[in-house]
Amino acid sequence: MTHRKVTTKQVIVYLLGLFFLSLGVSFSIEAGLGVSPVSSLAYAFTLTSGLSIGITTVIANVLFIICQAVLRKRIDLKNFALQLIITFFFGFFMDATLFIVQLLPTPETMILRWIYLIISLFVVSFGLLNYFTAKLPLMPYDTLTFVVSERFKLEFSKAKISSDLINVLVAAVTCLIFIQSFGSIGVGTIVAAYFIGKVLGWMMAHFQQPLQQWVHKDGNLAN
């Protein structure tokens, strides 16, 4: 298999990752218990503006790109353009998957809401498994975490925690100002912040290597 075909597999895995990531976020939105820190700002914008989650996802990620430029004190147009293209894909997936999830029974009981939240943890983790395994450019929020790590000389894990906390804080303040509630922030936000890492770690330990082998197997044979 040629390098082009290996790249095609990477793109497929990457897009599947973005799709399942958005699907998991959509389940958490429908659960109504609070979304994950990564999506909290975008959903806060949706709650306060009435715009679709796809549009606000793009807006939030544009802000993350601006933050990168401020912290790096330079503008990398090629890199930012690529991140923006990825953002539009993710925004489209967000609107599409939320439409799909809304076709399912509305979680009116607390038990069903928690079931939706638990489903979201596994679906988001599966999406992240594919997204990271593809080893293609990261979305603006993840890139911003790396920039924060480099700029302030922090371990990536600490930079991740810092980025998540700031994102959640800004989302909470936005909701409090405009709709007088925490809106996108809730117990589900805390659950997602803790358990997605755990579930993703388990999935990576069991499935990342086979997935990588599938992506690169024939390419290695061609070498």
SS strand fraction: under 5%
Question: What Rg is obtained from the alpha carbons, in whole angstroms?
Answer: 18 Å
N-to-C terminal Cα separation, in Å?
A: 9 Å
Low-confidence stretches: none
Give a written overview of the molecule.
This protein is mainly α and 223 residues long. The protein has one domain (3-217). Helices cover 82% and strands 0% of the residues. The protein is built from 8 helices and no strands. The protein has helices spanning 3-31, 37-49, 53-72, 77-101, 110-133, 140-151, 156-179, 187-222. Helix 1 crosses helix 4 and helix 2 (37-49) packs parallel to helix 7. The protein is globular, with a radius of gyration of 18 Å.
Quick tags:
223 residues
Brief summary:
The protein is built from 8 helices and no strands.
Topology:
Blueprint: H1 3-31, H2 37-49, H3 53-72, H4 77-101, H5 110-133, H6 140-151, H7 156-179, H8 187-222
Helix pairs in contact: 1-4, 1-5, 1-8, 2-3, 2-7, 3-4, 3-6, 5-8, 6-7
